[in-house]
Amino acid sequence: MGFLDEVLENVGKPYSQSKGFEWGTHEVVIGEAEATTKKTQKDDKASIINVVVFDEKDSEKTAQCTLYFHTEGGARMSVTKILGILVHNVGEEKKDAVRELGKKLFGSADTPEKSKEIAIKLINDRLIGKKAYLVSEPSGNYSTTSYGDLWHYPATAKGGDELVPLGGEVAKDISSDDLPDFEV
Questions:
Q1: Tally of domains within the chain
Q2: 12 within a domain of the structure (yes/no)
Q3: Less Cβ crowding at N or C end of the chain, within 10 Å?
């Protein structure tokens, strides 16, 4: 049996073997993370963390999420997401301790690259196997995608970068006051 057998059997039929996610917000599990670089429109080697997530009920259904650390704004958003995921994965009695941990860890970060070093360690030490939310927006004629945006609360993209909650209050467990200041 060859690796192309299934493809050869279905020549000319619509492709239905996608293991990506349909449009919308999906509760996912964080599978792995890697600090690396990515070519963007403005930066040939933008500093990022790739996070692979999967569906809890179907571990073959995966998506890749990118956390950006090549600008101060990107680092702020990425740290907000990481700390939000940490807070939302602990019981009420531990939320304040997690916020304090975030302040302690990121309080000394004076560059986006330093915050990336802290973030990758934190993700790999504390978030692998934890739940988060994936916002998935397939493009073109595709009904699924293997790429998405990682969030700490259920949201759906609407008109670009504006996020609208699907239910409940947005990130009530963490506020921007709980995050360290990255001003240089």
A1: 1
A2: no
A3: N
CA distances from residue 131 to 7, 69, 85, 128, 173 in whole angstroms, order as listed: 33, 22, 8, 9, 16
In this structure, is the dihedral angle defined by the CA atoms of residues 24, 127, 47 and 102, taken in order, positive or negative? Answer: positive
Residue 159 is part of which domain span? 19-176
Which tokens in the block code for residue 70? 């090549």
Per-residue pLDDT tens listing for the chain (184 residues): 677 777 777 777 655 556 889 988 999 999 999 999 999 888 899 999 999 999 999 988 999 999 999 999 999 999 999 999 999 999 999 999 999 999 999 999 999 999 999 999 999 999 999 999 999 998 888 888 999 999 998 875 554 444 444 443 444 444 445 555 544 3
Residue 41 lies in a domain: yes
